[in-house]
Amino acid sequence: MARQERSAGFVLFRVSSNGDREYLLLDYGRHWDFPKGHLENGEDDLAAALRELREETGISDPQVIPGFQREITYFFRDRKKGLIKKSVAFFLGQTHVQDDQIVLSHEHEGFVFVPFDVAVRQTTYANAREVLKLAEEKLAGTRETSGESRGDSLSSEPVTPLRMPAGVGHDRARRGVGGESGSKT
Question: What global pTM score does this model have?
Fold first, then answer.
C-alpha cells in the first residue's frame, strides 16, 4: 500500500509593464515547477502554500485569487519510503515583486517569470501544466468579465533561469537567454 503525502503551493503570476501576465517557475534542478511543499503539523493547505512560497522565494505577500484551488494526485517511488501517493493543493496568487527581490532557497537552482505560452512549454509535468491552464482560464475569464482585454503579444523566445550561485545574494543573479530547459526525472 502506498504511503500518503500532502503538499500545497502556488501558481503565482505578476503583470509586466506591458500588461501581460508572467508566471513564476522554479528550477528544481531536474524539473520546472511551481513553489510548493509539505504541510507541517496543524497547517491547512493555504497556510502551507503561503509558508512554502515565503521559504522558497522570499515572497511573503501574494494576493490570493478567490475561487481557485486545484488538487493533483500522483504516485512516485522513493528509494527509502517506497511507493508514495502524493496530493498537492494549488492556489492562484498575484505578486508585484521584481526579479531582484526574489530570494531562492537552497532547494532551487533558479527561477523565471515567463508568459503563459512559455510557462506551459517549460513546466515539466503534465498535471502541473493542466493546473497552469486552469489558472490562465480563470484569469482570462475574470478579465473578460471586468471589461479588460488580454493582449496576445506573448514572446516565444526560450529562456534560461536566473541562477543563484552558492553563497551569493540574489542581487548577483542575471537572466540569460538560451535553450528551453527542463527534463523529466
Answer: 0.76
